[in-house]
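Field log, afternoon session.

UNIT: design team B
ACTIVITY: writing a sequence onto a fixed backbone
BACKBONE:
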């Protein structure tokens, strides 16, 4: 981070079983864990570069590279990727002596956060989910954007052209706002030999795997009491915006905020607005004794 940041960052690695998880932290107070999306070359800090400082004013912000991404240990269990990631982040919380935290999750990170709330609800005080994965995915064909994402390592293999097409034409509403520097950084991360050997986000393995990755087929969703804010870009081309009303209708304590002229990367595309509503929502749901 730049030296003029108001809230200095610390960068360290945490051993979680056999995996090493790379973590960036800033701020103090109640813990807020921010989980990034699963696109090629994604990492924690690149996903939340426009949010870290604003949220660190109110929380102890913890941004890991999820297993399989960034500087963390590569490899994700294909039979149950959401569960594998959830266990990894819960293990991170154990290793950092964090009993309970707020979770923010974008796309794949949203799926991980929601799975954590379903598996161990006592450890998740509130959720903010931006275009989360796994919502109605077995009830319709994948979007073209999701197919672009899942096919990145297939065919002719990864390339800067394929990545630029995905990010500028499918990830965000206005691709002109994404700089060549962002594309280059993501591309270099996406061609890490360990990532190419074991891409972390791939198609489900068979029908059972697909069903396991669709939260709308998990009976626990309707009984989930975790306070939840769902944020969805109205022009999301990766995960269908119809997932927002579905979650709001199904979950017991779920608010929905739809952003116009916004794609799949709401926290980046509408950063100031995202930071404000996330701060307000989570501040009101921070345990009183913290």
């Amino acid at each position: 981070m730049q030296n003029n940041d108001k809230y200095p960052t610390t960068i360290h690695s945490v051993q979680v079983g056999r995996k090493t998880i790379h973590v960036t932290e800033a701020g103090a107070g109640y813990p807020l864990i921010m989980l990034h999306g699963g696109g090629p070359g994604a990492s924690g800090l690149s996903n939340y570069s426009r949010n870290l400082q604003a949220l660190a004013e109110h929380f102890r912000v913890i941004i890991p590279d999820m297993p399989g991404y960034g500087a963390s240990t590569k490899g994700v269990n294909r039979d149950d990727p959401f569960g594998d990631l959830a266990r990894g982040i819960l293990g991170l919380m154990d290793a950092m002596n964090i009993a309970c935290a707020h979770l923010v999750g974008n796309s794949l990170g949203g799926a991980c956060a929601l799975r954590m709330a379903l598996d161990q609800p006592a450890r998740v005080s509130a959720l903010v989910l931006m275009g989360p994965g796994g919502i109605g995915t077995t009830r319709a064909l994948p979007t073209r954007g999701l197919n672009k994402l899942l096919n990145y390592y297939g065919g002719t293999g990864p390339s800067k052209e394929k990545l630029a097409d995905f990010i500028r034409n499918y990830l965000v509403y206005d691709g002109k706002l994404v700089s060549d520097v962002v594309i280059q950084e993501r591309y270099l991360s996406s061609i890490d030999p360990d990532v190419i050997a074991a891409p972390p986000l791939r198609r489900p393995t068979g029908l059972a795997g697909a069903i396991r990755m669709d939260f709308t087929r998990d009976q626990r969703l309707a009984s989930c009491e975790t306070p939840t804010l769902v944020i969805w870009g109205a022009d999301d081309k990766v995960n269908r915006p119809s997932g927002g009303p579905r979650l709001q209708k199904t979950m017991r304590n779920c608010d929905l905020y739809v952003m116009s002229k916004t794609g799949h990367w709401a926290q980046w595309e509408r950063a100031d607005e995202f930071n404000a509503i996330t701060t307000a929502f989570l501040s009101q749901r921070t345990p009183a004794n913290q």
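LOG NOTE: The radius of gyration is 17 Å.
NEXT ACTIVITY: expression trials, pending approval
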